[in-house]
Amino acid sequence: MLLLLSHSDTDLLSARAAGGPVEYRFANPSRLPLADLPALLDGTDLVVVRLLGGVRSWQEGLDAIRAAGKPVVVLSGEQAPDAQLMEASTVPVGVATEAHAYLAHGGPANLEQLARFLSDTVLLTGHGFEAPAAAPTWGPLERVAKDTDGPTVAVLYYRAHHMSGNTAFVDALCGAIEDAGARALPLYVASLRAPRRS
Fold it and tell me: Which of 64, 98, 111, 192 could form a disulfide with 18 if both were Cys (CB 3.0 to 4.6 A apart)?
């Protein structure tokens, strides 16, 4: 059993949808009372913590996990790895770096392979695993559009929502745009900070 504690709810949605021989237990540390942590740790073999912010953003939780004696992988919730957070891990930095790649690419398939990877490399189980599968940095949401001839309105949303299948809100927004007479163009993007150069 792998415990995933992530500030990113899309990670949790992907873990819920992941298949494979290694089961997930998951929670968001920002909504997790510290008193509930021991029950989540009970019966788990390894813990992955993905934080927005540094170690101090959830120091008490990390201390409690270490005190429980569980192997822990501590990672950044951002796309780029964070060396300080990885140093808080009890696994080798190479394992933490590879674990970050699975989460940065996201989606249920990568979360399944993450669980297999950590189970094999840390717990020596022998399930077998694949490398992280890269996802496009941007793309359209496949949906049945209403036929309208008004102006086109782009709807940008994060790729993490797309990868986790959390797109019902995008479809609803596009439907409202179409009901108002415009054409909706829903596009997922990896980041709104750095435009893609061609």
Answer: 111
**What are the domain boundaries of the chain?**
2-123, 138-189
Angstrom distances, CA of residue 83 to CA of 88, 96, 101: 9, 10, 13
Distance of CA 90 to the CA centre of its chain: 21
Task: Write down the pTM of the prediction.
Answer: 0.79
Q: Which CATH number fits domain 2-123: 3.90.1200, 2.60.40, 3.40.50, 3.30.450?
A: 3.40.50
| pLDDT tens profile 28-40 | 999 999 999 999 9
- Using CA atoms, how far apart are residues 78 and 193, in angstroms rounded to an integer? 12
